[in-house]
Design goal:
This protein has 313 residues and is an alpha/beta fold. It folds into 2 domains: 152 residues, Rossmann fold (3-Layer(aba) Sandwich), CATH 3.40.50.1980; 132 residues, 3-Layer(aba) Sandwich (Rossmann fold). It contains 14 helices and 12 strands. Keywords: Signal, Transport.
Amino acid sequence: MKKILSSLIAICALFTLVACGSINKSETTKTSKNTMTTFHALNGDVKVPKDPKRVVVQNYPDEVSSLGVNVVGTDSWAYPNPFLSKSQKENMVDLGAPSFNLEKLIAQKPDLIITVDKDQVADYQKIAPTVLVNYQDLSGITTSLDYFAKLLNRENEKKEFLANFKKVAKKQMTKLEESGITPSDKTVSILELQGSKIYAFGDNFARGGQALTTGLGFKQSTKMAELSKGTGYAEVNAESLNNFDADYIFIDFASADKAQYEALQKNPVWQNLKAVKAGHVIVMDYNQVYFFGGPTATQKELSLYTNAILNNK
C-alpha cells in the first residue's frame, strides 16, 4: 500500500511539474532562447542548456563534476564515491537506483538530466532536457571527458583537468621508476571476488584500471585487453586464472568474502601463477576501488596504486 501511495504521489508531482512547464512555456522559451543548443544524443537531437547549472547524472557524477559542473543528483551506486571532494558533493543528492526516484528528482529542479536508463527517458524528459548515454561509448577517462566536455560546453575545463592529470601521473611514475619498476615493461590483471564468484576486469570498469594503464602506463595482460575491448568484465573460474597471469595481479573483495580469498590462495592453479610466485599479488580496498573509475577517482587512485605497489616490494 505504501509503495502504491508513493508512486501515485510521484506521478501527481510529475504531472504538476509538466503542467506548470506548459503554462510558462512561452516565458521560458523567451528567456532561454539564446542559452540552448542542440546536442545529438542516443535518444535523438536534444535541446540542452549551453551552461547547465543543476545537472542530475546517472553513473557519471565524477565526469561531470570533474569539469566543474554542479551535480545536484546521482544514483545510489555512484553517490558513495569516496574520491569526490566536499565541494563536488556539496549539492549532490542520492536519487535511488536503478532508476531515479521521481519525487526526489523533481525536487532537485534539474536543468539537465543525463541517464543510462533508456526505459526512463520518456519520464525524465518531462522534467528537464534528457540525454541518454551508453557505457560502451564512454570507455576510458579521455573518451568520457571528451563526450561530457562537448555536452556541457567545458572544453577548457577538460584540457585543464587532463594537463593536471598528466603531471600527477608523471610524478607517480617517477616514484615507481626510481624504485626499479618500469610500468611500460610490466603487465597487470585485475580480479574481484564476490561470494563464490571470481570476476576479471578490463581497464575501463573501475577497480583502478584507468589509473594503472592510462595513468601509470602499465600494460594489460592479453586477456585483460580483450575485456577492455568488449564488455569490460567477465566471470571466470579458478582453473582459467592462468589466462590472466601477469607481472602484477590486483585483487579486491568485500570483508565478507575474505574466506573466499583464503580458499583461492590454496588452489594449485593460483599458486602456480607468475605474479603469485613473485609475491606481486596486491590486495586493494574493495570499498575504495570497486565501482569508482571516473576522472577524479582515477587521478586520486594514481598515488593509491603506486603506494600499494611500493609497499608490496
